[in-house]
Amino acid sequence: MFIYTKTLFIETYRNRDCMAKKKILFIGTGGTITAKMIDGSWKPGEFTEEELLNFIPEIKNIAEITTVIVFNTDSSNMQPKYWLKLAEIINENYLEYDGFIITHGTDTMHYTASALSFLLQNLSKPIVLTGSQVPPQQLGSDTKRNVLDAVRVATDADIHEVIIVFNSKILRGNRVKKFREVEFEAFESVGMLPLGIIEHDIRHTGEHYQNDNADAKLKFFDKLEEKICIQKITPGFNPEIISKLIELGYKGIVIEGFGAGNVPIDENSLIPEIKNAVNKGVPIVISSQCAIGFSWMYLYECGKKALDAGAIPGHDMISETAMTKLMWILGNYPEYNIRQIKKLFLKDISGEVSDIRSPKEKRIWEYSL
Predict the structure, then answer these.
(1) Which listed residue (29, 73, 103, 107) is catalytic?
(2) Active site residue 158
(3) Which CATH number belongs to the domain containing residue 20 in this structure?
(4) Looking at 32, 34, 66, 155, which residue is catalytic?
């Protein structure tokens, strides 16, 4: 890991219109958006952020950009400590800039966005993540559109939260999954509409924004508990795996159950392992492994028994967000007991969970666009 900075376009803005342009810190981490073909495969970090911005010269008419390259890596290599580094850089530069853009590989962009939504709270400025599915120099690349859209949103949309801008959509960072591996429509918002659509104008969909207080004071958190994992349940799953994870030192586990948060309760029952974990102070969250499903554990006996054993329902929080939220809770409140962890986990911190508690209340958001 290495860090260096370079300021772009400063000379361009030394005129009477300079004060009209917002200052944006452009943070590079690698990913496809910086990749070039090396020995037959795409290698991130070969196309610098300076080259990237020079590749889109119209940006200089929108904002005053300063670049910081933090990592040059494929996002599959991202680690929780990298999320902490990004949050630290934004915190240290928060008063100097009007907004922040992070270029990132698409494979784990939603994990990073979700983690940042807990590490950086009470935002009065936008934190925008973007990337591309095709490297910038390739024919048909989506790089130019996504970067230009990110700058437009960071300067014009007045959104004060962590968001992903991709394929003309503005998505809440902790409500996003990657649904497609190579298509431009890589990300989908789960549980809510996109915050906005980017066309000739930036159009809001009517979803609520997290913070409209431009004078809000940033709440910065600098800790994450890394020993948290997501475990998908399958037919025939050996429940002893849960005990082995705890033996390996895991402090919290997100279980992706079947359907509405169901787990085996007869042969290979998970109930004893859930009780054992909870008794040891290890929170067990149960979400749904359905791509756009939620966890309503009270509906079926297979979910209700897990609930009675002490498992925490994920409700309409997606698994990746449940994981990063547990990392934030356990990292910053290590003294909390299971009851306190559950109470904070179910509290809406950054728009990641709603007060909907039944399928009857579930919004038909997936049919709205």
Answers:
(1) 107
(2) no
(3) 3.40.50.1170
(4) 32
Instruction: Give residue-wise pLDDT tens across range 209-233.
Output: 887 776 789 999 999 999 999 999 9
Write down the catalytic residue from 67, 103, 106, 130. 106
Tokens 């009470």 correspond to: 122
d(CA 130, CA 143): 9
Q: pTM (2 decimals)?
A: 0.92
251 is catalytic: no
> Could you tell me which of 30, 3, 2, 22 has the C-alpha nearest to residue 129?
30
pLDDT in tens, 233-242: 999 999 999 9
- Distance CA(247)–CA(233), nearest Å, equals 19
Distance between CA atoms of residues 50 and 67, nearest Å: 7
Q: How confident is the model at residue 157 (pLDDT cuts 50, 70, 90)?
A: confident
CATH label of the domain that carries residue 258 = 3.40.50.40
Judge whether 280 counts as a catalytic residue. no
Residue that has been written with the tokens 């910081």 in this structure: 68
In a domain, 364, yes or no: no
Question: Does the residue 365 lie in any domain?
Answer: no
**Domain range enclosing 136:** 4-220
Catalytic residue check, 107: yes
